[in-house]
Amino acid sequence: MNTSENDGLVVLAVDDEEPALMELAYLLEQDQRVGTVLRASDSISALRILTGGDRVDLGGFSGGTPPTGLPAPAKQSDVDVLFLDIRMPGLDGLELANVLSRYVIPPSVVFVTAHDDRAVEAFDVGAVDYLLKPLRPERLYASLSRILSSRGTTVPVEPATDEESDDEVIPVELAGTTKLVQRSTVRWVEAQGDYARLHTTEGSHLVRIPLSVLEERWSDAGFVRIHRSYLVALPLITELRLAGSGYVVRLGTGGDVAELPVSRRHTRELKDRLVRSTKQAWGRR
Questions:
Q1: 43's torsion region: left (phi>0), alpha (psi -120 to 50) or beta?
Q2: Which of 30, 72, 209, 244 could form a disulfide with 102 if both were Cys (CB 3.0 to 4.6 A apart)?
């Protein structure tokens, strides 16, 4: 197993929906027990990765039960774990897992799906876990722990250094290009259903990460919830004022100003945070 080299798990994420694939890969990359995250948008691409880029011949298979004549690799794949969607065009996730069961040492399989009616089939093909979308980070963490336990392997989680934890990087897909957005460039985050829009100094980017996940993950980095739809970088707030029947915050100055509403339930907490941050800033002088 690749974790014997203390490099972390080699994980392959497979999903035909690009936003879901990006979110899954992003969450996996945040776990220090994961060393490498590979991605595939369909089962055939996943098989190519698993076989080291060799041509995949399914003998004309296009659905149903995979043919029994598929050769089993003579050695273990470099991939330790597959996080796999079920409903995909062509060879679906359950069929791919059935193919993998013929490996001499098959990788662990975890299904990540929006459908709760295929769990029995999933465990019949040897799945280690069955996760439902939208994916919760704590559930993913528990799944990785289960995988390591089932393999009799433990991967130490080393505390992040100050250098590593200073600025998180968020991968964003745009027109086939992956852009790396630094958290320090994010001014505020806006909830849009199961997605979140990151408003940065250069523009905005849509990611399939719930606002609640970012609120929890970025709280220590100075981000605070001001509304059910908004998360803002506390150090960038230049003004909190009463406007009509409620409060608004102002971020930035000049032509770069943005005003966002503050809900009543978050007003007191925001005031307290602003006062504390001001006192801390003066205390450091």
A1: alpha
A2: 72
Report the interhelical angle of 43-50 vs 93-100 (nearest 10°): 20
The whole model's pTM is what?
0.51
Q: How far apart are CA 6 and CA 81, in angstroms?
A: 16
Q: What is the CA radius of gyration of the chain?
A: 22
Q: Over the stretch 142-151, which tens digit does the pLDDT of each residue have?
A: 888 888 877 6
Beta-bridged to residue 197, according to DSSP, are 190, 206
Q: Is 76 helix (H, G, I), strand (E, B) or coil?
A: coil
Residue at token pair 């590593």: 164
Using CA atoms of 216, 219, 223, 224 in order, give the dihedral in degrees to the nearest 10: 70
Instruction: Give the whole-angstrom CA distance, residue 206 versus residue 197.
Output: 4
With residue 179 as reference, give the H or E element that holds it: strand 177-182
Q: Is the pLDDT of residue 90 over 80?
A: yes
DSSP 184: G
- The structure tokens 């595939």 sit at 40
